[in-house]
Amino acid sequence: MLCAVGDLIPADAVVIQCNDLKTDESALTGESDLMKKGPTTDPLLLSGKRRSLCTVTVLASGVAQWKNVGL
Asked: Coil, helix or strand for 31?
């Protein structure tokens, strides 16, 4: 999956490879700080979250009614 800065993540996914990935999860966690993500540190990306500048390779794990958000 390839996204530009500020794009919404289109599907739940697991990070396979990245360099300095950070996401805005303030709607979910209430924290205004960007959350650092990576294959070994918090690899789960939830759909609908905005991401910051980086290149990321992921494996999509859910879309539509099969997403984790709202369960």
From this structure: coil
Say how far residue 53 (Cα) sits from the centre of its chain. Answer: 12
> Tens digits of per-residue pLDDT, 4-62?
667 777 778 888 888 888 888 887 778 888 888 889 988 988 777 777 667 777 787 76
Burial of 19 (0-12, 13-18, 19+ CB in 10 A): exposed
Q: 37-60: buried (b, 16+ CB within 10 Å) or exposed (e) per residue?
A: bbeeeebebbbebbbeeeebebee
